[in-house]
Specification:
- The chain is of the alpha+beta class and about 525 residues long.
- It has 3 domains: about 15-275, P-loop containing nucleotide triphosphate hydrolases (Rossmann fold); about 285-380, Rossmann fold; about 400-515, Alpha-Beta Plaits.
- About 25% of the residues lie in helices and about 30% in strands.
- The radius of gyration is 24 Å and the shape is globular.
- About 50% of the residues are buried.
- Bound molecules: guanosine-5',3'-tetraphosphate.
- Guanosine-5',3'-tetraphosphate (G4P) binds near residues 25, 53, 149 and 259.
Length: about 525
């Protein structure tokens, strides 16, 4: 049993449930590892255990085989560990941009996010896109400027870039002493103390920290200190002070400087997640009414995942607890079907390990095994019925038609397609006339197709071929407009499994022209339009 599990069940300590977002390579995985290190959750192992780089012998499923071939991380995980007197739930998000839809769903279950930037690169394409998702959800966002141990930009340049590109004021909470590449430590702006770091090899253990007075810092750090002191004066002069209300409204980002690799600044960041980020609050139901935290147990599913491990060939639904206390074995009601749902097999999922969970509280995530009817967005409740809003799907920008190449496997194909649709691996669109034989698969990123094809073949025994189409833009329409659109060139109308009608267009230009010509047509943008790509 991991060390974290012993602590995880002691009772309703305050929760902090958040996700880390970053452009690939900015350091999300490294920072995750370091949070676990500081949370004492590596169970005797050293940092490096989360993603065993270069050592994928533990790969246990076909799916992971695909990850391995691609060298990317597709599966998201939930990491829970105690820190100070809190319990931290760190929701991992997939690194590759093609899986941003997964990230979107994970962010629906988070109460805050940490944005990691590479000090030399600043805001990158994927950072921007993920930030837009956080903004759309009004999530409070902390920023960690990483890799300060390497040459990069100046702190002021980076702050300006965050403000300019994201339209989000960045308030430094720590201030680096020593330029990027010659990093000595940070000043904690809350109390003016200088925290000096000592490097440990590859950051395998916590970085020793020393509190140094201003006089001593001036003596020992020389110019580096004086430059930092000037910067700090400037910040005070321009009134760059932290405002908790703006932060909680997602209108200001407290910013930290550090290096995840060497652990510099990691403790200060984690402490600030505890001190500044909000705990779970009452979640609004579909009618906009809050479900009080102390109402009977309820939660919603933000991720469904099958086949993580061949020795458990089943399906896990990740449930974010929104109210009440979850006790393993309680019988919940599955909102969409009205059926009862036994939670005898409930787990916490730590990385790739599963452990039985006995109880859980708002903010926690429970992995429900054998969740065969459960889909992303579904509500499960106990005692008093509630329905939480669906998690909107991202606007797909890639569309391919799927056909089974061995017609004897048609049944398996249909079953597989339904499963992938319910998990949200791809969105499945159907033509009322063509039916199920050649569904259109819609994706935010093309790699979703690879996962779909691989799983249809390996998990369902249904070999498929995909044919590309020319469609690139989707809009939501209604029955009346659909009838008008169907006869037009360069347009097709298909139905999603939830009944939504989507009109697909070959180009944004074509779509805009049509809107210009026929303003009465219903053509609503999907959530996330313009974020993908
Ligand atoms: P990601 O999950 O956001 O994709 O990034 P990841 O943590 O995998 O980090 C990407 C690379 O950046 C890794 O190097 C990692 O060691 C390095 N890195 C992370 N944080 C820091 C930091 O604070 N300073 C410096 N100098 N480097 C950092 P790699 O060469 O791809 O992997 P590895 O061979 O080092 O394991």
């Amino acid at each position: 049993m991991n060390e974290h599990a012993e602590h995880a069940h002691v009772g309703p300590r305050p929760r902090r449930t958040f996700a880390i977002i970053s452009h690939p390579d900015a350091g999300k995985t490294t920072l995750t590892e370091k949070f676990l290190l500081y949370g004492g959750a590596l169970g005797g192992g050293s940092a490096g255990a989360v993603k065993a780089r270069g050592d994928r012998r533990s790969a246990t499923s076909d799916w992971m085989e695909l990850e391995q071939q691609r060298g990317i991380s597709i599966t998201s995980t939930v990491l829970q560990f105690p820190y100070r007197d809190h319990v931290v739930n760190l929701l991992d998000t997939p690194g590759h941009r093609d899986f941003s839809e997964d990230t979107y769903r994970v962010l629906a279950a988070a109460d805050a996010a940490v944005m990691v930037l590479d000090a030399a690169r600043g805001i990158e394409a994927q950072t921007l896109k993920l930030f837009e998702v956080c903004r759309a959800r009004g999530l409070p966002l902390l920023t960690f400027v990483n890799k300060w141990d390497r040459p990069g930009r100046t702190p002021l340049e980076l702050l300006d870039e965050i403000e300019d590109r994201l339209g989000l004021p960045a308030t430094p909470m720590t201030w680096p002493v020593g330029i990027a590449g010659d990093f000595r430590g940070v000043v904690d702006r809350r109390d003016g103390s200088f925290v000096r770091f000592t490097r440990v090899a590859r950051g395998a253990t916590e970085a020793p920290e020393e509190l140094v007075s201003a006089e001593r810092a001036h003596r020992e750090e020389g110019d580096a200190w004086d430059v930092a002191a000037e910067g700090l004066e400037l910040l005070d002069a321009v009134g760059a002070t932290f405002d908790s209300e703006l932060f909680l409204a997602g209108e200001l980002t407290p910013t930290f400087f550090g290096s995840a690799l060497t652990n510099f600044g990691v403790r200060l960041l984690l402490n600030s997640v505890i001190d500044l980020a909000p705990g779970p609050g009452p979640r609004l139901d579909v009618d906009g009414n809050p479900r009080p935290l102390d109402a009977p147990m309820s939660g919603f599913v933000f991720k469904v995942q099958a086949n993580l491990d061949p020795s458990h060939r089943d399906r896990i639904a990740y449930l974010r607890v929104c109210s009440g206390r979850f006790d393993r074995g309680m019988v919940l009601t599955h909102g969409r079907t009205g059926r009862s749902f036994s939670t005898k097999y409930a787990h916490t999922v730590f990385g790739r390990d599963r452990e039985t969970v006995e109880d859980a509280y708002p903010g926690d995530v429970v992995g429900l095994v054998n969740a065969n009817d459960v889909r992303v967005g579904d509500t499960l409740w106990f005692g008093e019925p509630v329905e939480f809003p669906a998690i909107p799907s991202f606007a797909p920008e890639h569309f391919q038609v799927a056909r089974v190449t061995d017609t004897a496997r048609y049944k398996q194909f249909r079953r597989g397609i339904t499963q992938l649709d319910e998990e949200g691996v791809v969105q499945v669109l159907r033509d009322a006339e063509l039916g199920d034989s050649a569904p259109m698969l819609a994706a935010v990123g093309p790699m979703q197709f690879d996962v779909a094809v691989h799983r249809l073949q390996n998990e369902f025994g249904a070999p498929v071929e995909l044919s590309p189409t020319r469609y690139t833009v989707a809009r939501v329409t209604d029955t009346a407009s659909a009838a008008a659109l169907r006869g037009m060139q360069g347009v097709t109308v298909l139905a999603r499994s939830d009944g939504t009608l989507l009109a697909l267009f070959e180009s944004e230009f074509w779509l805009q022209r049509l809107i210009g010509d026929k303003p009465d047509l219903v053509l609503e943008p999907l959530v996330g339009t313009g974020l993908a790509g």
